[in-house]
């Protein structure tokens, strides 16, 4: 993921009360000047955003500018990647915003510093109460560490990034969910925290191996959920973990602590799988098949219609083998799929966004307001953009109660629950408890002159 050079100016101080008083006065002055310079052209930063950016060491960024390149949704918080740096909004009770404290924020604050200072982040994801970022020299995590999900032992958590102890090589993908962290590095899949393997919960990466997964296989993607994980290797999906709802896709409901091969006959016959994602007791994958068709397949629990079967088709409680997602996506090629909780979202090759499954908090993004919303979306439905200027989606990331997406122009939008300020809307839940369709976040990173 490319990044652009960034111009910076810092204020340094020993942390005295006198300095903080002067710094606060200077911030008010800078904010006033910025409002004049940027009025009518860019969203303006709030005083809260400026204040929250003052770190304990007396530093404040006053020249951060750039276009977003990724956005991710954790549980009750969100993070965005801008010019190789991380900004976060929402719940911070475990330090998952990376600000060095546990103060929550209803606007995106940052950039995350500490061990990430002067490093360029290439991959980013968020879990239940932790965040991880990959750079060219390692993986760094912050937040809660009660299951070892930060990749370091003997600490309860960290509100600033800590480096994962093991050397993993060049990371090409990263996936967090719940209390689990996983990456693809050097053609292998690694997980730490809750691994869903015989290793249990560990504070150091373990390679996902054994079972049906050939030792020589090259892993290209990995996904992890609350109780299971999946990866793709040489075009074939493999899963491991709990299987009570058929979420391993191997035709059984038997738990396996080593990878089993997902059934690739039937609807998935002739398709080579690339992208894979895991939610709460279900999984989905994108396969490339005949005539360059890119189709989506899901398996596991279907209690919230998250397998994407249209209402005029067979409605099943679960499926322990892959089913092709139907409805509008029956004949539309899909580029990527992402799952969170019991909700699934996909982006087509034409850059349109579709979601289905649980929509109790509006996380499927297919409504306008509380007067018109389906709590369960039983087939893939196009994300409602309304008056938002979203011609194309570059990415969509969904968690259990909210989702965020980025347009191809680099604008960031979030929707669903805003109970902890995770949508990045000034005023937090008091101003907007929920949004049932994409809503622009306050892009403080692009407004600071």
TrEMBL record:
This is Alpha-tubulin suppressor-like RCC1 family protein. SUPFAM superfamilies: RCC1/BLIP-II (SSF50985). It comes from Oerskovia jenensis. Transmembrane segments: none annotated. PROSITE patterns: RCC1_3. InterPro entries: Ran_GTPase-activating, RCC1/BLIP-II, Reg_chr_condens. It holds the Pfam family RCC1_2. Gene3D superfamilies: Regulator of chromosome condensation 1/beta-lactamase-inhibitor protein II.
């Amino acid at each position: 993921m490319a990044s652009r050079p960034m111009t910076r100016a810092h204020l340094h101080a020993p942390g005295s009360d006198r300095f903080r008083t002067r710094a606060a006065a200077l911030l008010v002055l800078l904010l006033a000047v910025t409002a004049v310079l940027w009025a009518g052209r860019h969203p303006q930063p709030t005083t809260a955003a400026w204040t929250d950016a003052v770190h304990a060491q007396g530093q404040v960024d006053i020249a951060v500018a750039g276009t977003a390149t990724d956005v991710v949704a954790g549980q009750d918080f969100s993070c965005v990647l801008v010019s190789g740096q991380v900004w976060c909004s929402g719940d911070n009770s475990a330090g998952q915003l990376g600000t060095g404290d546990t103060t929550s924020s209803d606007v995106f604050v940052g950039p995350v510093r500490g061990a990430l200072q002067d490093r360029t982040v290439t991959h980013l994801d968020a879990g239940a109460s932790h965040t991880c970022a990959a750079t060219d020299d390692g993986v760094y995590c912050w937040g809660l560490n009660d299951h070892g999900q930060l990749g370091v032992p003997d600490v309860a958590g960290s509100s600033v990034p800590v480096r994962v102890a093991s050397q993993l090589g060049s990371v090409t993908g990263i996936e967090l969910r719940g209390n689990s962290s996983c990456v693809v590095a050097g053609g292998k899949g690694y997980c730490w925290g809750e691994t869903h393997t015989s290793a249990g919960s560990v504070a150091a990466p373990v390679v996902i191996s054994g079972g049906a997964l050939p030792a020589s296989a090259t892993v290209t993607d990995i996904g992890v959920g609350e109780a299971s994980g999946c990866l793709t290797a040489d075009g074939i999906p493999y899963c491991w973990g709990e299987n009570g709802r058929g979420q391993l896709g191997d035709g059984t409901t038997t738990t396996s602590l080593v990878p089993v091969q997902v059934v690739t006959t039937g609807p998935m016959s002739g398709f080579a799988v690339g992208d894979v994602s895991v939610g709460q007791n279900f999984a989905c994958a994108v396969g490339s098949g005949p005539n360059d068709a890119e189709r989506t397949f899901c398996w596991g629990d279907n209690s919230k219609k998250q397998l994407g079967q249209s209402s005029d088709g067979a409605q099943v409680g679960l499926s322990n083998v892959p089913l092709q997602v139907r409805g509008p996506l029956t004949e539309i090629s899909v580029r990527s799929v992402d799952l969170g909780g019991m909700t699934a979202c996909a982006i087509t090759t034409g850059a349109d966004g579709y979601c289905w499954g649980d929509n109790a908090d509006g996380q499927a993004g297919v409504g306008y307001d509380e007067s018109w919303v389906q709590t369960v979306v039983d087939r893939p439905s196009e994300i409602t953009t309304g008056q938002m200027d979203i011609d194309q989606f570059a990415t969509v990331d969904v968690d259990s109660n909210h989702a965020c997406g980025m347009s191809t122009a680099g604008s960031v939008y979030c929707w669903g629950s805003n109970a902890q300020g995770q949508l990045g809307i000034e005023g937090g839940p008091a101003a907007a408890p929920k949004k049932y369709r994409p809503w622009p976040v306050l892009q403080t990173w692009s407004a600071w002159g």
